[in-house]
Amino acid sequence: MSLAPVRPARRLPRRLLQLYVGLALYGASSAFLVRAGLGLDPWDVFHQGLAERTGWSIGTVSVAVGALVLLLWVPLRQRPGLGTVSNVFAVGLTMDATLAVLPDVRGTLAQAALLTAGIVLNGVATGLYIAACFGPGPRDGLMTGLHRRTGRSLRLVRTGIELTVLAAGVLLGGTAGVGTVAYALAIGPLSQLFLRVFALPAAAGSPAVAASDHSDHQSDTQTPAPAPAQG
Prior knowledge:
Blueprint: H1 12-36, H2 42-54, H3 58-71, H4 73-76, H5 82-101, H6 108-131, H7 138-150, H8 154-172, H9 178-198
């Protein structure tokens, strides 16, 4: 997808609100998927697997992994923004906070309902924080940085990264299942829809913020990508 940033000072409060509401909702939606118990997105399968091995909470693992991934930006010459750094901390913290108050669910219908709510909420969250134009999440930056350095397609790089973390997460004890597949199929269209909903209106004399094909829950805001990896 491609966003043409519109950043007049008067839009800063709205952009900041979109960023932090979006990141908070992203963490909450990830918690929904955990409680549904039907499978997580690839990065959270990895986070959950590490949490099982370390005894840390899944949100704490998410923060730690995000920080380590951000360090990989240095050799890739990626430049983080406010949204990048905020993503590292906000998603994991809100994920743990939501898990602390959200009980487990029992029964296929209840699990499916919570899974659906989590995926839709994740799409809303993605549209909010990416349309704020404060920079991609650390995992998206890894994807686009590798794309630029290797010359491989974004689709190939993204697929390679996500299959790797998914396989590692499953081996570590993370939960993959029908929810993982449902997330992969739905998040691209949902993110594209909500990016258009939350796109900043054009200011006088400025180009409009245009949302076109968004690849997934952690897609890059600068380079066109195939159909958010977590932030």
